[in-house]
Predict the structure.
Amino acid sequence: MNGFFSGVWYFLRGPLETILKDIYVRRDFYRKLIAKIGEFNLKAEKNLLERGAMMIEWPDDLGHSRGTFVSPKLYEDLIFPWHAKAIELAHKYGAFVNMHSHGKIDALIPLLVRAKLDLLNPVGPTDNMDLKDLKEKYGGEICFLGGLSKNIGLMSAANLREHLLDRLRVGAPGGGFILGSEGGIPMEMSIENFNFLLKASKKYRKNSPLS
């Protein structure tokens, strides 16, 4: 389904810069906007869950490569309550929740853990998300999906193999990690390297030769 924070600037009042100004100078107005999106999303989510959905996912890009668009305090006040409601609703139906957010959003993860988010993606290296640090701090409380650079399409087979192994060495121990790319499969990736990625992922997932 659509995001909560991102839904406001995608569908009601973009671009992003306008919404960020609203948050600081027209906060009550912003609360009304996100409530419109939030109430719609929760109704849509309930519809999906009643039809048997086993996982709910939404995209909510909350940051850039240097940090979050809003402070953790503002996130907790304005956006987090909607995330928490959506997660709670999914869990009532026995479903998992997978939230997508680009950006260096590690400062928000304690709140997401508090809300019992199941999966967070894509924890990308170009967003400066330190997978090793995240696993050490939150590995037992949240599953990280991603880890692979969006630049895998430009890597040689040898570099791709080493990058893949590095991500598995960091993410796999103790579980709570699903390998994936932070940017999907790039258009510039050769079919040979794509097939190599598939085969190598299956091989190392099954045999775990993390060396």
Observations:
- The chain has eight helices and seven strands.
- The first strand starts at residue 55 and ends at 59.
- The chain has a mean pLDDT of 93.
